[in-house]
Amino acid sequence: MQNSIKKIAITGGTHGNELTGVYLINKFTTNPKIIHRDSFKTISMHTNLGAMKQCTRYVDKDLNRTFSKAALADDTLTSYEDKLAKEINQKIGPKGSKDSNIDFIMDLHTTTSSMGLSICISSTDKLTWQAAAYAKDKLPELNIFRWQGDTDDAAFVSSIPPRGFTIEVGPIPQGVLRADVFIGTENIVHTVLDFFELHNTGKLDKHYDSVEIYDYKKLVDFPRNESGDIVAMIHPDLQDDGYKKIDKGDPLFMTLDGESVNYQDEDTAHALFVNEAAYYEKGFAMCLTEKKLISLEF
Amino acid sequence: MQNSIKKIAITGGTHGNELTGVYLINKFTTNPKIIHRDSFKTISMHTNLGAMKQCTRYVDKDLNRTFSKAALADDTLTSYEDKLAKEINQKIGPKGSKDSNIDFIMDLHTTTSSMGLSICISSTDKLTWQAAAYAKDKLPELNIFRWQGDTDDAAFVSSIPPRGFTIEVGPIPQGVLRADVFIGTENIVHTVLDFFELHNTGKLDKHYDSVEIYDYKKLVDFPRNESGDIVAMIHPDLQDDGYKKIDKGDPLFMTLDGESVNYQDEDTAHALFVNEAAYYEKGFAMCLTEKKLISLEF
Lengths: 298, 298
Known about the structure:
The structure is a homodimer.
Chain A: E1 7-12, H1 19-30, E2 41-46, H2 49-54, H3 69-73, H4 80-92, E3 104-110, E4 116-121, H5 126-138, E5 143-146, E6 163-170, H6 179-200, E7 210-220, E8 232-234, H7 236-239, E9 244-246, E10 251-255, E11 260-262, E12 269-272, E13 286-295
Parallel strand pairs in A: 1-2, 1-3, 3-6, 4-5, 5-7
Antiparallel strand pairs in A: 4-6, 7-13, 8-10, 9-12, 10-11, 12-13
């Protein structure tokens, strides 16, 4: 069949302190039957053993921002993650090749933000979007976030094979396992594997014309003083309410002294990745998005 | 007045990724009036700037296990935290001295565990227990955990002055600020400062004969395989229910395959520090305690 998928990779531990992916890969490698489907081969692998060993996000730099074509071609980049990226690219790429070793990838992540079950897609590949739309159809609580900020040369692990996306589930602290997050993430994995089994065997009973997404608009940093120190926290109204609709005047932050800091823009937004621990150092407190229905007939 | 308290220290950042304490100290040092009381002097300080800078629990070792008298006297211990401990001991100690620079300390911590507002006490000092009992009287949701595992030579920051305790609030991920946890922790601080103001000025209208506590029984590790890898997670029934009562047969863990692992002991326990991220490397999943009323007439 046209576009049949022959080999899928499930990866975890890209961020070594996001234990859900680490332990799901342990589960899948211990008992590969769980992720077996008849019409394609599935491999599961840890991507960043160094970061996993020390239970940190990374050793030298964020592995999930290290897969631009330029970085992969640059032999002068010799950090732990830069070298690792080149190894991973050989295993599940090479990136940009029509003869990639892997046809589709799911990279398993978690977040301290109240994101529920989420898929983050940078790809413009039609089949990838059909897989995401199928997953949302089967798991209605699933949210799809489109991030095309660096589509031309996406630097994520999930950008290596021609198709794929990142799974993000939360809230969960770094360095912690939670049964609900573990089970929820595994459910997404199985649903997507089922999609490709149906696709490969011509048994898909539905084509998705459109899907609801949260489309990237901009990043918002914490209020800071002149020294760069954070002087306000995420407002309690926003803290535990993932994908919350934000209108002008709604509170975004609360200063350490208890004053509200409100949203000033005219356009409605939905807030994602609110209070993700790893983004404090990157300089943002949340990502604002536009909720929309997009056509999949592109 | 007998036993009057002249100088109190509030410390935060002992674990550099527990941001609530870090930012409360920022707030107090920016505006010391907040923690001013007329009858004593209060200082606020960060204890582990190195760990704070890299947003990790510690640089070389856990600072909050580095204050045994033996370690403080051992000049051959030269790790970052061992050297730091000696500096801190000079500032707010010296430990064991009747002429300590500080009379009472509150060291501010957080946990990924669902512990609510908690005070952890190792001290056997009467006035320290009166302060805790007062705080529980004013803040009924507060819980008191007694840890006397290393009372003879407690190694916590809070063991340096003759009186003091650790404040633990959660759940909150490492590396994250939450307004509710921030406000809750500050409420405990103010309540305890108020206690000492009333104590010093002879205006305390109540003496506490007894208080309800959770008394340390034992630590329980995660189920592990022969390689030492964790093979089960905290059971969902226990995950978000701090101080939960556990009887024989109640589920403690869920294996990665979904099987329950149950509590086998005959005696009832209450589970604390369930799923604290920092304790994965220490080898325990929870602390079991006995809920009891203890006399304060010792």
